[in-house]
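Most newcomers find our protein records easier to grasp once they have seen one. The structure tokens are whole numbers drawn from a learned vocabulary of backbone shapes. The record below serves as our worked example for the rest of this section.
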Amino acid sequence: MAERAEEPPDEEAYATAVEEAFIGERGTPFLLSAKDWQLIREWRESGVPVETVIRAVRETFGRRRERGMAGKIGSIAYCAPAVEERWQMERRGLVGQGEGRRDEKPEEIAPRLKSLADALRLSGSAGASGIAPDVLR
């Protein structure tokens, strides 16, 4: 059976984890604004995993350090484009990881194609029986 994803943290735990990552990267005490808290809430409600947000925050600060940029980031909103980009990349990687028929062996295609070609030949339609050989190529 397919593994189930972990339950997301509750709103307080999610927000606290993001806040701690942001403050840790910033390196100085900081109080998030009401707009910052709303953005964090929107990420959670949109299904963005807290780990994704934290990775994006760290990447944002890391890129600033690499560029030698001075000054402090004054809002979590500065990291929003990175969060969206990271989440899009991760979602693309998650395709096919949901529940499904993982534990079932894939059906062999050759017998299915032969069956389809036979049905086309038997259909009585000149057009259908004419394409039957193409199905098997």
